Amino acid sequence: MPLQGQWLCGGCKRLNLRDLERRAVVHDRGAHNAFLYAVIGSLFLQFIFQPLALIMGIRALRRHQSERGWPDRWKALTAIVISSLWFLALLILAVGTLSVEWGLWR
User: CA angle at residue 23 from 77 to 82, to 5 degrees?
Assistant: First the structure.
């Protein structure tokens, strides 16, 4: 019987279908938490949640880097982008503040 372009016997087909169903149902908790931390960190407690979101998002991407059809990839990537933008804004704010204090902008 054909399944995703492969010819399989009845027993093998059942095993492959079970594996496909398990992959479709199992979601990565790390990617989900990273996304939540990034969104919550955008609203309040940025210094706590944004670094956690960045670390958890990178870990989730590393854990699933060989999987092409990983359904929670967007959550990990979104958490990394939000946290990176936050760090970039923090860096720009720090450099701007220091340059004004040191008299570089007159």
Answer: 10
Q: What is the pTM (predicted TM-score) of this model?
A: 0.66
Question: CB of 71 within 8 A of CB of 24?
Answer: yes
pLDDT of residue 81: 92
Residue 51 lies in a domain: yes
In b/e form, how buried is each residue of 56-83, taking b as 16+ CB within 10 angstroms? bbbebbeebeeeeebebbebbbbbbebb
Number of domains within the chain: 1
* pLDDT tens profile 48-99: 888 888 888 998 888 887 777 777 888 888 999 989 998 898 888 888 777 7
Fill in the DSSP letter of residue 30. Answer: H
Whether 1 maps to a domain, the answer reads: no
The domain of 67 spans: 28-101
The DSSP secondary-structure symbol of 104 reads: -
Q: Is residue 57 part of a domain?
A: yes
